[in-house]
Amino acid sequence: MTPATGTPTLRGAAVGRGIGIGLMYGLWKPRVLGAWRVPASGPVILAVNHSHNIDGPMLMGTAPRPVHFLIKKEAFVGPLDPFLRGIGQLRVDRTSADRTAITHALGVLQNGGVLGIFPEGTRGEGDFASLRAGLAYFAVRSGAPIVPVAVLGSTERRGRLISALPPLRSRVDVVFGDAFETGDGSGRRTRKALDEATVRIQERLTSHLDRARHFTGR
Fold it and tell me: End-to-end CA distance of the chain, in Å?
């Protein structure tokens, strides 16, 4: 973040990527598939399923470009607050229309950066069964393509130090899908247009997740 504006910086996200690489490859065994599908430049949104607490850091460490994630404000406590801000992550209040978070997220895309979103809103089954409209809003508003990402860890309970984490040194598959545009070509940002876009996005994300599970055997 820059001291004056509090906006996220690419340099900060790049530092976060370096930390993610060290931690994720040190504690688990990531297998990255399809990273070449992420556009090498320009704005892009990574839409990630969310079933483990390491999904965000895992993507930060395996994506080919630095990522700015929208992260729930509850995570920004104590020393984690300045740390997360320093590595370019975005604090968002999920209980309201957080204008500051929206402005910063759109700024990331306008500057040609990578925005990471958990479209389900919170950690759960990680199956994209319930999507919030935020992903559609950012995609339609910015015109940035969406790249679906499936993070698939072990379902084995034995060997886990924490239930929400895959067992240490276990393989975690990170599967990137084909980039796609979500707008209908009209440029509309009405509630109806966003609802329709959300349905289209959900179909693409669910389809990618099914293919990723079939391919990896997860």
Answer: 37
